[in-house]
């Protein structure tokens, strides 16, 4: 017998009496979903798994960041090890440690052989071992120690427009505050190499470098652009320009490639000091941290310092004009820089090209590099 439910002003949820859902429709949909004929197609179209994975992406992110930070891949660069040996070396507890190693194997970053020994997969071996020049794990280390927690402030950013980074809530001195801690300085600069190596490798091939003999990379960090451009074009001499505290880290990196005869460092601020002269200037991931006014000022300063015919290159995670998957990454990057700085944002390639033209650059070109990053360049008329 159906239950008798007497509730004032409340809809009764009881299939035999009244229902708030269209039960007939629900049953039809369920049958279609369960059907061996149309079910597989429907399950593909209406699968919530993708949404679940996006929502829970912080699980895999946290696992990967921790593995890089704790040096799992760097440890395995010496050769395969058993789970016991790895846990012993890392000081991990077997209860979670073995599951973490297996999860990294399931994610394709580790391999496990029949005898149970773990080794790096090809891409982990190339990109996640600290001692290799192709290491991009600095970005993960930076994210683990800095960005991961900053993103918890997204809700506040959305309500207030104020960055989560504490130093940005007081004096606007992002780099001074960050660089006060020598470990943070190194992690940040190596993280920048992680972000930029793929981009500048392509930039070295997609800009007409043959026409020029010298360049200055403004805000050079560890020197990813200088190194990749100099390796690609043996005729070029380059300068890395950055805050003075960056010098030893730039110099070590450049020396490790044997390029110290063609690449030099000059310390200073691109806002207050003269720019080291060159035929090409570049700003990589510098504009995204600046206000519109700051960008205008830097473009004008570069233009004034360039010889006629000289070039300015700007690259950032700029949003491409047409809708594409790249937009998502670029917009996320924009939120990231808003969490870090008071004035920063990622612009569009069109806007950046317009700014160069408005400042007197001609033959302005937009070229996609890799992932969400594009470069815009123009020549001083
Ligand atoms: C986000 S990082 C980009 C690094 C590098 N261009 C890249 O794309 O990987 C910004 C760089 O600009 C430098 N920088 C910040 N303010 C500067 C200033 N006022 N003068 C010179 N360099 C500055 C920072 O030290 C840092 O290396």
UniProtKB/TrEMBL annotation:
<feature type="domain" description="O-methyltransferase C-terminal">
    <location>
        <begin position="151"/>
        <end position="361"/>
    </location>
</feature>
<dbReference type="InterPro" id="IPR012967">
    <property type="entry name" value="COMT_dimerisation"/>
</dbReference>
<dbReference type="InterPro" id="IPR036390">
    <property type="entry name" value="WH_DNA-bd_sf"/>
</dbReference>
<dbReference type="InterPro" id="IPR036388">
    <property type="entry name" value="WH-like_DNA-bd_sf"/>
</dbReference>
<dbReference type="InterPro" id="IPR001077">
    <property type="entry name" value="COMT_C"/>
</dbReference>
<feature type="domain" description="O-methyltransferase dimerisation">
    <location>
        <begin position="57"/>
        <end position="128"/>
    </location>
</feature>
<keyword id="KW-0489">Methyltransferase</keyword>
<protein>
    <submittedName>
        <fullName>Methyltransferase</fullName>
    </submittedName>
</protein>
<dbReference type="Pfam" id="PF08100">
    <property type="entry name" value="Dimerisation"/>
</dbReference>
<dbReference type="GO" id="GO:0008171">
    <property type="term" value="F:O-methyltransferase activity"/>
</dbReference>
<dbReference type="GO" id="GO:0046983">
    <property type="term" value="F:protein dimerization activity"/>
</dbReference>
<dbReference type="GO" id="GO:0032259">
    <property type="term" value="P:methylation"/>
</dbReference>
<keyword id="KW-0808">Transferase</keyword>
<dbReference type="InterPro" id="IPR029063">
    <property type="entry name" value="SAM-dependent_MTases_sf"/>
</dbReference>
<dbReference type="InterPro" id="IPR016461">
    <property type="entry name" value="COMT-like"/>
</dbReference>
<keyword id="KW-0949">S-adenosyl-L-methionine</keyword>
<feature type="active site" description="Proton acceptor">
    <location>
        <position position="288"/>
    </location>
</feature>
<dbReference type="Pfam" id="PF00891">
    <property type="entry name" value="Methyltransf_2"/>
</dbReference>
